[in-house]
Amino acid sequence: MLAKSKISWQGSRREVREINDPGAIDCKMSAWSQWTPCDPCTNMTHRSRGIEVFGQFKGSRCIYPIGDRKTCKPTTKCQMDPPPVCKSSQWRCESGICINKNLRCNGDYDCGEPDTSDEDECEVTRAPCGKTAVFESDIANQAGYGINILGSGPRMNPFNNRFYNGQCSRIRDPTTLEYNRLPWNVGVLNYERKTFMRVKGRVELATYRMRQRGLEVSSTFLDDVDALPLTYEKGQYFAFLEDYGTHFTKNGKSGGEYELVYIMNEDVLKLKKVTATTVKKCFELGFTGQVQFSKVVSGEGQLKPTDDCNSLTDSPTDDRNTKGAIDKVLISVKGGSPASAVAMKSQLTKDGILDYNQYVEWAKTISALPALIHSDPEPIYNAIPLDFPDAQPRRDNLKRALDDYVAEYSVCKCQPCQNGGTVIQIDGECKCMCPPGTEGVACQIIEMELVKAKSFEQLGNWGCWSSWSLCSGGRRRRTRTCNTQGVAGGICKGDKTREDYC
After folding, report:
1. What per-residue confidence (pLDDT) applies to 396?
2. How far apart are CA 252 and CA 139, in angstroms?
3. pLDDT tens, residue by residue, 79-119
4. How many Å apart are CA 316 and CA 321, to the nearest integer?
5. Torsion over CA: 247, 252, 256, 257 (sign)
6. What angle do CA 144, 146, 147 make, to 5 degrees?
7. Taking residues 355-368, what's their average pLDDT?
């Protein structure tokens, strides 16, 4: 179907809308909960609310806070946790934590910054690494960094990766040729030089693996855990997850990664008789070799597409005989310097084929600016030490908060897209990812040449799961319904009921 446009004036702003656009849907928040009892240790009270409907189809986004707080006057006194009892072989830091006596006066701040009391009043310093020059590893310092399973980036690391436990475990960085000292939390760190050249490719710089037991968390993390109420309050626990992530990286790979998604014109491919083998060959660039991040050790590559690839990358035109087969290239780059990433993106946007020289320039910057390109996640509540006061109720509350957090930002609160579009939720707004040949806020516009040639599957969108039923016979049950509003004949794929043990 073809769409016409109409122009509406809103004050001095002109808004262009398609006539068959779905009506705008504005964000809708639930009512606030009651204020919690006044916390006598912080003199604060909290309340929270939820998202009922996300903004969609050019409606207002859900950018409002989930939690709220204000000062209050407590009616009870603050009960502080007693300091831990140190063993005879331990020394008490100014902050109250206990460390082994042999960690005093070794040049390391083993009490955990900003507490430096273990290095005060030292007449002699016994450095674990002696006079050997060792440096901190940026990759090791980032080990265990929090990740958010919904995609947003947390701001804090729960672990104290400047704690060495008096050991001098070293590894040589092949890029700088300097020795890096491994923190206690990192059990294994391997530097690698692997290059993969594909439409989705990566440069692996290093891998790390956290210790299985005895991880040292930061004092800031423990303070924030201690501030969590023993009675579940959604807003406070959500804020904790957004600070530290829903999970931490138990094992990870650092380096750089790029991903290219090519949207092809099937009609042009058939007209020019381009085979799948040719497409694959062109997209892989024909690069072989090794990149050492400071220079290219060996390699060969095509600086420009070969003649066979020109049929894919010709400039856009209305003439099918000269029109390129690539309609659009979607590009994602992680790691490396922003300037080199922008240059690589610009070349891809212009020519549609990854350029060898641009790739090498980007790869050389990865050692200085690596990104986390793969991780094995571990729930953040497992970072809370079991011997921490009231650890178990806080762990249980974080488990509940994790389930609530995923449900809060689910696309079940979105309306379905038309013509096989996929609904996603980004920054408080539902958007439709449209299949090739469709466009519009709901994928409702179909290119004229495809109207008769292709039929699009109409998919609904699953609504949110109901609450679990009461436990009966050791099992509980919940259901969901298929939302087909605005999508005639739409269906939902998947189960509408789910059972679990209880």
Report:
1. 97
2. 10
3. 887 888 899 999 999 988 899 999 999 999 999 888 999 99
4. 11
5. negative
6. 120
7. 77
- Domains belonging to the chain, first-starting first, are 28-74+410-501 (2.20.100.10), 81-126 (4.10.400.10), 127-258+356-409 (no CATH)
Among 403, 428, 400, 399, which Cα is nearest to 413's? 428
409, 51 in Cβ contact below 8 A? yes
Q: How far apart are CA 173 and CA 323, in angstroms?
A: 49
Vertex 394: Cα angle to 389 and 397 (nearest 5): 165
CB neighbour list of residue 131: distance below 8 Å, 6 or more residues apart: none
- Secondary structure (3-state) at 356: helix
Return the structure tokens found at 335.
């790691």
**Secondary structure element (H or E) that encloses residue 398, with its range:** helix 391-408
**Residue 309 corresponds to which tokens in the numbers above?**
């690839």
Taking each helix axis from N to C terminus, what angle separates 391-408 and 234-244, rounded to the nearest 10 degrees?
90
Q: Cβ distance 387 to 402 under 8 Å?
A: no
Residue for token digits 């490396």? 336
Residues in the chain: 502
The confidence score (pLDDT) of residue 137 equals 84
Q: How sure is the predictor about 414, in pLDDT bands with cuts at 50, 70 and 90?
A: very high
Distance CA 325, CA 313 (A): 7
Element (H, E) at 331: strand 326-334
Predicted TM-score (pTM) of this structure: 0.72
Q: In which band, very low, low, confident or very high, does the pLDDT at 278 lie, cut at 50, 70 and 90?
A: low
Distance, CA of 128 to CA of 104 (rounded, Å): 11
The secondary structure of 250-319 as a DSSP string is EEEEEEEEEEEEEEE-HHHHHHTT--HHHHHHHHTTT-EEEE-SSSEEEEE--SS--HHHHHHHPPP-S-
Per the prediction, the chain carries an average pLDDT of 80
Distances in Å between the Cα of 205 and the Cα atoms of 138, 336, 360, 477 are 12, 11, 14, 46
Quick one: how many helices (H) and strands (E) in the chain?
10, 28
DSSP 438-453: EESTTS-EE-HHHHTT
Q: Which residue has the tokens 């009609």?
A: 267
* Residue range 215-247, pLDDT digits in tens: 899 989 999 999 999 999 999 999 999 999 999
Q: Which two tokens stand for residue 17?
A: 């809308």
Q: How confident is the model at residue 199 (pLDDT cuts 50, 70, 90)?
A: low
Exposed e or buried b for every residue in 45-62, given b needs 16+ CB within 10 A? bbbbbbbebbbbbebbeb
β-strands 475-479, 429-433 pairing: unpaired
Give DSSP secondary structure letters for 204-268: EEEEEEE-SS---B-HHHHHHHHTS-SS--HHHHHHHHHHH-SEEEEEEEEEEEEEEEEEE-HHH
